[in-house]
Amino acid sequence: MFKSTKDPNAMKMREQLITQVILLLIAFSVIFPILYVFGMSVNPDPRRPTQLVIFPSTPTLASYSAVLDRPTANPATFWQLAFNSTLLSAGVAGASLFISVFAAYAFSRFRFAGREFLMILVIALRLIPGVAILVPLFVLFNGLRINNTLYVATTAALALACFAFTLSWFISRYRDNEAGTGAILTLVVGLFVAVMMAQTAYANYGKTDEFNLRTSLLGVGIAMLSGSLPFAVWNLKGYLDTVPKELEEAARIDGASFNQTFFRIVLPLAAPVLAITFFLSFMGNWAEFYISWMFLTEPETYTLSMTLWNIVGQYAANIPWNRFAAYSMVMAFPVAVVYMLFQKQIVGGLTLGGVKG
Amino acid sequence: MATFSSRVSRIMSGSGSSDKAGLWPYIFVTPTIAFMLVLTFMPVLFQVWMSFTDFSLSNLRMDPEKFMAFINPPKNVGLENYRGILAADQAVIKIAGFYFWRTLFFNLWWAVSSVFTTTVAGIVIAVLLNAEGLWFKKFYRVLFILPMTMPSIVVNTVWRNMFDRENGAINLALMSIGGVFGFSPETFQIDWLGSVSAPLAWLFPELSIAGQPILFPMPTTYFAMLISNFWRGWPWVVVVATAALQSIPKELYEAAAMDGASGVRKFFNITLPLLKPAVVPAAILSFSWTFNLLDISYFLTQGQPFYQTEILVSVLYRLVNEQRLYGVGAAFSMIIFVVSIILFIITNRMLKATEAADV
């Protein structure tokens, strides 16, 4: 039964061709909806053609400029919507990372009493569908109201404090010549938080109503955090398990304290891991719909997904399909590009943490 | 290696690494647990209380002078909400045509069938892609990731557009393909998202409880759901399966080839058994994920026709966001918790069983 070919596993020509045909068909099925939507987005006519035409004869970018200007009749510009979505997803991803990295490290490295119980708790929370906890969050957040002036003053003060603290910390690091990647990352995160707070203060400045947690992006973010936290703990723990322990043990032999080991050894080593977890939760929250749709009432707090659903309308006739298509392309594009760029790392993360994008 | 150096560290420091950490692990765990207590456990407890009341829109206002006190507290109704949901009492749940057991069984059937289709396709495509000497392998790998990167809301609204009865892309494509074989265009005026007709009825078992069908031939809409989920779902299985495939040693195939095994036999005797440890957990995870996947039922079908394609979480969202029945919604959430826990226990058993079988 010996074969004379060099590689017994190499494909024969017939197999190659059959496989290529099958894979091309699959590739076509993957690409067809995307091409179709792209064709629709450059169609000057808001109605769909009665024949199957992928690319219109007189393409125009008019719907893109219309969508980027003002997607719906609501007085919210596209950039405001994009800002709100980014704020929510990046804020939630950053916050859950910041909170959970400590727990993930403890779970990954130490066998302390109660560890099993707490880990089962985290898994159990991952199983609860997010929607099944919306009712109490809605009612409780709706009850949390404070005077708006007080709220604006608090957020402005917090923004200033965060800004001052991050900057002075970074400068002191820089003077000591210790401004590595970690310090720069912390600077960026700290400044981002400060900008977020400042934006919140600015957006609410001069309003007469009392501040209601439920109708604010902050409230939506906190509600999203409830679902995002268990995921981040679990994912990070899975990653940290794969980071070798030898360096930490060496550091501890050299007399480094628990804290020193964590901040000087583990965090720098885990930087790529943190980045992937951040991106995965960012992705998961980028198109969040249900919480914002239920909580938010003011157009200036709307997000990208809410507006997409507003364009399609639940029962609306006469949907401007070219605008819908342009909006879909614009909404899906940035995430898809980042995904493609970091494909290798993200795919590794998907198989490890067991997440569905 | 790890055990060796940890032994070294124990000798050097005179104690195990976990002893030296002392209270630190607890301090590190505290922020996460505190947030979970406040953001999840307290709300769940509050939800338990709410589920025994007739909480509705009129009870929402709280007293600004006191902390967390309702101006108009809801009435205690005992187990009425639970009874109303399970018995489909219109006075309680106010969704016409709702029947709990039907929705539950549809939900289970939907999750199982969508995981089955994506998993089988994902494995087959991963195996095809893994063939040695395949042309354009890199191109396919990158392209096939694309559906995963699309936000679910975009995918499902786009499919909704394509499934439209008039001038929808799917019907137009079927018409032009069917035209080649001489079918008239009217054959393909398919009302994908609203028709009550059930194609392939022989495929589905039928079962009734107290005269109410709980398993029934699936309407056209179900197939639309399946297609939309399939388009976005199979690439993930390819990713998982490819990772597992690449760790299978080539020597196994070479040995099988020497013994004269055919490609099909190699697939069933080598590939599949070695894929199992990676794919089965992924499929189980995918099942619990799809079971609570609100997106397709909400954005694509809106539960049409006649709430037949509604799943548990989409009924809940409708109850809360459209009917504003917070008390009933809380009870419904508690029922979903119970269902989730039962499913978790079952899937966990299955996972353990497959692990044991591997040893």
Structure description:
With 357 residues, chain A is an all-alpha fold. Chain A has two domains: 13-60, no CATH class; 66-144 and 213-353, MetI-like fold (Orthogonal Bundle). In chain A, 71% of the residues lie in helices and 1% in strands. In chain A, strands 1-2 form a two-stranded antiparallel ribbon. Chain B has 359 residues and is mainly alpha-helical. Chain B folds into two domains: 18-50, no CATH class; 99-358, MetI-like fold (Orthogonal Bundle). Chain B contains 15 helices and two strands. A two-stranded antiparallel ribbon of chain B has the order 1-2. The two termini of chain B are 24 Å apart.
Question: What's this, in brief?
Answer:
Chain A is mainly alpha-helical. Helix content of chain A is 71%, strand content 1%. Chain B folds into two domains: 18-50, no CATH class; 99-358, MetI-like (MetI-like fold, Orthogonal Bundle), CATH 1.10.3720.
Q: What is the fold's blueprint, element by element?
A:
The complex is a heterodimer of chains A (357) and B (359).
Chain A: H1 13-41, H2 62-69, H3 78-109, H4 115-127, H5 134-143, E1 145-146, H6 148-175, H7 181-204, E2 211-212, H8 217-242, H9 246-253, H10 258-269, H11 271-286, H12 290-295, H13 304-312, H14 321-341, H15 343-353
Antiparallel strand pairs in A: 1-2
Helix pairs in contact in A: 1-14, 2-14, 3-8, 3-11, 4-8, 6-7, 8-11, 9-10, 13-14
Chain B: H1 2-13, H2 17-21, H3 24-50, H4 80-86, H5 90-93, H6 100-130, H7 137-149, H8 152-162, H9 169-180, E1 207-209, E2 212-215, H10 220-245, H11 250-258, H12 263-291, H13 294-301, H14 312-321, H15 326-358
Antiparallel strand pairs in B: 1-2
Helix pairs in contact in B: 6-10, 6-12, 7-10, 8-13, 10-12, 10-13, 12-15, 14-15
